[in-house]
Amino acid sequence: MSSRSPDLPGAFLGAPIAHRGLHDRACGVIENSRGAIRAAIEAGYGIEIDIQPAACGEAMVFHDDTLDRLTAETGAVRERSAEALGRIALTASGGETIPTLGEILALVDGRAPLLIEIKDQDGALGPDVGPLGDRIAELLVEYAGPVAVMSFNPAALASLVEAAPRIPRGLITCDFTAEHWPRVPAERRAALAALRDLEPLGAAFISHQWRDLSSPAVLAAKAAGRAVLCWTVRSPREERIARALADNVTFEGYLAEVPEDAPGQSAPSPAPDPRPGGLGWRRRPHRQPAGPRGH
Hints:
Blueprint: E1 17-19, H1 34-43, E2 46-53, E3 59-61, H2 82-85, H3 101-108, E4 114-118, H4 132-140, E5 147-151, H5 158-163, E6 169-173, H6 186-193, H7 198-201, E7 205-209, H8 216-223, E8 227-233, H9 236-242, E9 248-251
């Protein structure tokens, strides 16, 4: 059993967390891009990003394991070098390319809480996760801002226990149904849904699917003092429901309200529309781009 990781800093429990940054494809601001990160910071939100590995082992800020949905290229992210990925433009972005985690850390620089998801590399939430966690730990050792790391796969976080013990670590969780997780064996799905990896991993928090927050396992985790975040609400109504049990929400598809007393946040300014003469994010509906609706 691992020692419990540090608790989440208070900043993660205040301002809502922008899922993959504050993105809006209609305005050329693509998920997990530098523009989406800047917009989230300027609006006073926390930030969630996703990490996939390059062929060279570098940590790239990108959600999918293939390039097809978000670029004009095809094929696996892990088959390209960081240098090559850094030259690939994100579609409809006006020329933005895929950033590294190091670039995003330098951009955020402690100005917003940063929640990092390590994407599963095993394919079935098993132990074959490769060295991605080691690279992330290496990058975070000297980072001074509020940051936490999480994954659906507990094995993806194992290297951080020793390599980055001061970084809060948590699990992304849900009910793990066979419909949504067909490659994961039934016994493993049951263990994940029951949150049996929390204690062995020493996880300080969970981020749980918002519709399943009343799960007995979630309520037990909360009673044990673990912070409960949730994913991914897409309307004020869903946020209100989720906040009955969750300590904070991860959101997209609308503009969540930032509490005036949100800990660890500077006073938010209106996040600008990046288009010349744009109306500004807060003056119009935030449009949800097409793409996967999972975490």
